[in-house]
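> @MW can you paste both from yesterday?
MW: sure, first one:
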Amino acid sequence: MDLSNLKLEPWWWEAAPRPELAAVEIPHSVDVVIVGSGYTGLSAALVLARAGRSVFIFDREAAGWGASSRNQGHIGASFKHGLQKLTATHGGATADRIFREGLEAVEACKRLVDEEAIDCRIELRGRCIAACSPAHYDALARETELRKSRVNLDADMLSRDELSQHIVSDRYHGGAVMHREAGLHGALFHLGLLSRVQDAGACIAAHTEVLDIKQEARGFTVTTSRGRVNARDVIVATNGYTGELTPALQRRVVPVNSFGIATERLDPARLERLLPGRRPCVDTLNLAHGFRIAPGDNRLIFGTRPATGRNRLTSAAAHLREEMLSVFPSLADVRITHSWTGYTAFPFEFIPHIGKREGVHYAMGYCGYGVSLAPYFGRKLAYRVLGDKAGQTVFSELPFPTRPLYYGNPWFLSLALLKFRWQDNRCH
């Protein structure tokens, strides 16, 4: 196994390096301060700036340094719990609304790319879900048919032989194809959004940490590492990087790091033999594998969540390579060139949330589907700030609980991941 010359940063940054933004002066006051310059924050800023609001975005890292430039670019919307379970928990009408808004988020993401003419290598070929066992296939079939009948999901089940037209691997027992889903280059998508936001007049202060948000009689005083600014409204858009700045929100999401690797460039015909049709794919494991052909390049991108003890990028790359070979054994001779990680956020009930706490607007908890959900939620946040009924969403009506003894440090995560790994191993 050759890990020499391994780049410990996202392959996505090759085409879309993190921008070096010009320094901007911190104003005395603005209409809206946004904390976080990923998809959520930028999408909110775009709507607000075009509505005539003065908007200032802060990020303690480079713009889009987090998951918005590290993800696999899958434009999908699924949830940990299926329609039947959510019906039992929240009732049929609410469950249907959750899944309908998930489908709308997919369409909204595609429209955003089209309407803003963002060059992000979007591929409208659908997306595949691969079943890791006969039992997983049966559960996937039941869930798919239920969503088709109740929320108009555009999908078809695939037998094991039919799946081989999309994924050539002995690992899987059939699957489903989601016809309306898609893929893009997430880091280029972010840069395109960033450009539109700047053109709309919003300002971004990178490498500027927000240290405190204090609610006042007529708004907020926001203290940053470079000074203070007064704001009428504040939006927190930090998702998997939510921290001590907002302790109540930090207690309600669990940060989970996903890892990714990229292979060296391969013969296009060799890749086509593995993934005919070049559709992004994810499987049904708890620690799911996600993989696709890199948009605009002849590499395989492969990602998952290592069970435990894999936080170093070199050891994670070795682990992910073994996981990749469990799906595509013929890649044993292929060199890994890039290894990276990034955080996503999981609420305890595995449903994303949008709302307002102590006067601060927020959206987070995308459970790994931020490419579609984050821009959608960002726009909803903006409309809520504007007092526009377009900001209405079922995700603001659901409980957003925490757990006793949880204050943002997921001390239980290693045990949970080991349990998931044990369950996944039984599918082999």
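MW: second:
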Amino acid sequence: MSRAKYPVELPPSLGHAARKLAKEDGVSLSQWVSIAVAQKIGSIETAEAFFKRKAQGANQVDFLEILRNAPDRPPDPGDELDTA
């Protein structure tokens, strides 16, 4: 398998944590980062496939009707948008 190098700059706290976890897993930092990137890609691609599947057959008119019927009330505590 061919490999490519991607220089990555991490904040010191992430670098220290990644090195510590790689050591605990008994792998090199490079291998640990490769696995972490692969896991992230897998989770995003899985989520993308899930939402594409859920969107099949969706109807914008129905969606807008649901929004029109939603109650007009303030958000629940903790669900507020940060307006700063």
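> thanks! The chain has three helices and no strands.
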